[in-house]
Design a protein that fits this description.
Layout (H helix, E strand, L loop, with lengths): L4 E6 L3 H16 L3 E2 L8 E6 L4 H14 L4 E6 L1 H4 L2 H4 L4 E2 L19 E5 L1 E2 L10 H5 L3 E2 L2 H13 L4 E5 L14 H8 L19 E4 L4 H4 L3 H8 L7 E3 L7 H6 L6 H14 L9 E8 L6 H14 L3 E6 L16 H19 L3
Helix pairs in contact: 7-9, 12-13
Length: 355
């Protein structure tokens, strides 16, 4: 591909944003110029996401909008679950799943934020998840490479360092360690002193830890809470539960139970009450309208949210994704899903204002 003006459009998670930062540098090294809008571009690179039908629809509409007058290249997770060539024969596919992600030159989206991916894939087999199909089984990145990337972020004077992956909770299980041990190593680092003789003062940065599936966290819960006491760690805990019904969790092939989630939330709240830690936040995710979800199951979800009152509640209507086990399940009527989503959102808004 000759030197061209290239625009990068990113969908999805922090990991995708980081992939785009790495790819932006690689494109520039090949002689292309990164531009800030589609209008200025000869080529559009789309870093795609396959989590939801809603996101897929946005991506397909975006391609349709520019397909006739721009060269389109697409990477990311969607290329693993959808045959995009069938709908858009001229589209170019770039496999980014096995991109080298640590210790790479990059162009940061925000110079104050470093996104560090600590693993690829996961150990879960959730029946509804297409990301697992796209990214495969867990491959934890070595701690020495993560530490090197972390030191680089400190030396680049990043104020917030995100640790992200498909599931931070299982990082290290395939190499004989865990997230708590990784964090213990990272919070002791002070950079490589490349800016001068004294390096950066301890505490100039904050670590924000991404999603942890609750059942994995139980294996190192007490140690993790102890590490969270560090002033370097933002008191943010993202533990997706997806349903308040153990029956539905089992049908989703989620390994844990509602009781696991409650235990973790209670221990975290006891250790980091909002009266003392203003940034203390529990975030969780709920899938509303899973095909096997009954009214009784949904009521249990409402009861759980009333009990825990997570500061952040990500509500998603169930969407059937290609190649997943849940794809063949008969969906609930859309009016039921909309009604339940509305009830859950109203519950969330009813207590959120008072936090």
């Amino acid at each position: 591909m000759k030197s061209q003006k290239l625009f990068i459009k990113t969908y999805g998670c922090q990991a995708n944003i980081n992939d785009s930062e790495i790819l932006a540098n690689q494109f520039e090294k090949k002689g292309h110029r990164i531009v800030d809008s589609e209008d200025k571009a000869d080529v559009i690179f789309i870093n795609s996401c396959t989590v939801k039908n809603k996101t897929q629809s946005k991506i397909l509409s975006y391609i349709q909008k520019y397909f006739n007058n721009k060269k389109i290249i697409i990477g990311g997770c969607l290329i693993k679950t959808n045959n995009l060539k069938k709908q858009f024969p001229k589209i170019k596919i770039l496999n980014t799943i096995n991109l080298k992600r640590l210790n790479q030159n990059l162009i940061r989206k925000d110079k104050n934020i470093s996104i560090i991916q600590i693993s690829q894939g996961c150990l879960n087999e959730c029946a509804y998840c297409a990301t697992r199909i796209a990214k495969g089984k867990l491959k934890s990145y070595p701690i020495n490479k993560i530490k090197k990337e972390f030191e680089k972020a400190i030396d680049d004077n990043c104020k917030i360092i995100y640790l992200t992956s498909q599931d931070n909770g299982c990082w290290g299980f395939d190499i004989g360690t865990n997230l708590a041990e990784l964090l213990e190593e990272l919070i002791s680092l002070k950079g490589r002193c490349v800016r001068g003789n004294h390096g950066l003062p301890s505490g100039d940065y904050k670590i924000r830890i991404g999603m942890i599936n609750p059942w994995h966290m139980l294996k190192f819960l007490d140690k993790l809470i102890k590490i969270y006491e560090s002033e370097k760690i933002i008191k943010f805990l993202h533990i997706p539960i997806q349903s308040g019904s153990n029956k539905v969790l089992k049908e989703m092939k989620r390994t844990g139970k509602v009781e696991d989630f409650i235990l973790i939330a209670e221990k975290f709240r006891k250790a980091f009450p909002r009266t003392k830690y203003k940034d203390s936040t529990i975030a969780t995710d709920i899938i509303v309208g899973y095909p096997t979800e009954t009214e009784e199951d949904f009521d249990k979800t409402l009861e759980l949210i009333k009990k825990v009152k997570p500061e952040v509640l990500n509500i998603s209507a169930f969407s059937s994704r290609p190649k997943t086990q849940a794809k063949n399940l008969k969906p609930l009527p859309s009016e039921i899903i909309k009604s339940r989503s509305k009830k859950l959102n109203e519950l969330y808004l009813s207590y959120r204002k008072s936090l």
